[in-house]
């Protein structure tokens, strides 16, 4: 008779060597990183430019520039450009983050040669016309209004604004700030930060020499001004740590609770990831168990350490029934306190380590996921063995390490408590 | 092309195995042939509430998630109007843990009263978060009962009313489990770095001893053909006026589905689609517009939804949209645009095969619909659609007097 109460024999998860990308330096100095893996004839091509939101002099410029770059070049109007990408079955986007802007394109390998000229055209000859600008601005204003209606969006924005205060990382956009943008702001941003700077290129998927040659040939022709280092101000932390915005008709309160986090260049980064996972980083975390599984206050609660290039922030996010908001904050504080005063049991620690190792190792079987990690290493100038260190540090992490980190990084009076709803 | 083998256990459980040695993961996917369409109208939201309860422990294993996390695995589940799907992904060495966990909850759930109380609250918060506390979140909650007069698609998976969740009893839960959660009503897919022989052994060990249960025959009332348009107006705290049209179409596995799916792509997939170019870019009537299929197994909908520009009246937006739909057959289709949407569809299919978990789920859903190999026939079906098919079905379906209209108006 099968005894179902005894779990089957299981095997510990061993570290896996992080796959090294192949790197080629193009004749114009651009680095091309290649990760080839998998059976499907697909690729992802990413071009990352140091053209993040923080480099523009007003909020919203980098985002609108990215949007306008999809709306036509000197030779192809918006329809023709988009139709061409669609015709070759490509998913593509130009997105902007705080530090960078990225042009990403996925499609089948057989279409790559037809897609590259389009990418090049956008990088060299974007039109950014007055008429398209007027359209896109209206659309952006509508999207922005829509987003501000959501308590979760509003709370995220206010969190960043309060934490980073006057730093460009703390800028948020609304209808008023968007309407202050002029088409020339975008043209200037495109000239300076897209055409003016050197991208990092990452090509992943099932990549053969044919694909590599095509990519090299295309982007070798890019010319750009070799720039001195971009100047960014000294980071400032805000002082207003508490912010509540009532929303009469909201059914839930969106809570964002956190502080400055741990950057990847900090040696504590790895073990802090373990600590964060214990508290709120996965479905079995203490917060999820307490707030969702025991109290039923929310559909979900999680914490994360968001690493940017000049800073990092650590944040707990959840949407709860209005009446439970205070108690939720109390419970978050209690869980933090517990991690500062009581050792995590060996049992719980080994579970968290296995979970982290399992999901990490799982991500290394897929080219697109590896490319995300390679991108981080390149953009932040991390050592090539960063993700090997990550694994060995997870495996060697002790309960004593965690209690120390909890006391170092979660000092009581440093938290920002932002609530909307 | 996804290679697979299939066999059936004596208790009726269908098993599909896809070996993919390129990954270090193993995936175990179980689909139960039950969705919100199988609920009683007085007890809606049950299939989904039940999905939550499946994580509350089983007869021999008090907690579902913990032992899985301990061996490096992850899992989740989702419920649709048609089905409920549970999936586990785990380092391949620890595949047996997934068998142990998944088979025990198929055999006998714990029916823990505490778990019911908590999950009831969690689902109510989910209801609020997804349907009530979002601009336009309640569209389908309010529109489904207008569109479906007879078919149980008239309520969303979360349920018609929070009350049904609030009033659910442990007895209801047990009855639901006994009716739907058994081997003859399920399909198991095992994929990734696994071997057919090994899977056979594990299936015999963990799933074969479970009682077969009864396979239910589904008899759902079908909708009558729409004789005239329906109209619904909602007012709410939303940032912009939105307009929705829904045209009744065939189910996901009926023959002309792919032709109609390509029509929806031509109309409203992406920034080169006909409606987008005409109504967002040229005429500036809408700030955004898209078209998509609900893709349900029983007859579903082709939906067009758009956000109307400020200063444009509903009447004007409707008139321009109808006018543009009229022009679609003449101006919107060509050999080139058809090839474009076929290429997009081909890309989607190939990308679906990149992740082993997606492959497993798609095999499971196809098997539920009657033939696991259906996943491998999609590409051919899409490619065989002709311009004449597009013309025929556009003409037949996009009728001005046989669809549903919804205006979602912002409070002044």
From TrEMBL, chain A:
It comes from the Bacteria. Keywords: Coiled coil. The keyword Membrane does not apply. Residues 44-151 form the Peptidase M16 N-terminal domain. Residues 322-349 form a coiled coil. InterPro entries: Metalloenz_LuxS/M16, MPP/UQCRC_Complex, Pept_M16_N, Peptidase_M16_C. This is Insulinase family protein. It comes from Sandaracinomonas limnophila.
TrEMBL record, chain B:
One of its GO terms (molecular function) is metal ion binding. Residues 168-344 form the Peptidase M16 C-terminal domain. Residues 14-129 form the Peptidase M16 N-terminal domain. This is Insulinase family protein. The keyword Protease applies. GO terms for biological process: proteolysis. InterPro entries: Metalloenz_LuxS/M16 (IPR011249), Pept_M16_N (IPR011765), Peptidase_M16 (IPR050626), Peptidase_M16_C (IPR007863). It comes from the Bacteria. Pfam families: Peptidase_M16, Peptidase_M16_C. It comes from Sandaracinomonas limnophila. Belongs to the peptidase M16 family. Keywords: Hydrolase, Metalloprotease, Protease, Zinc.
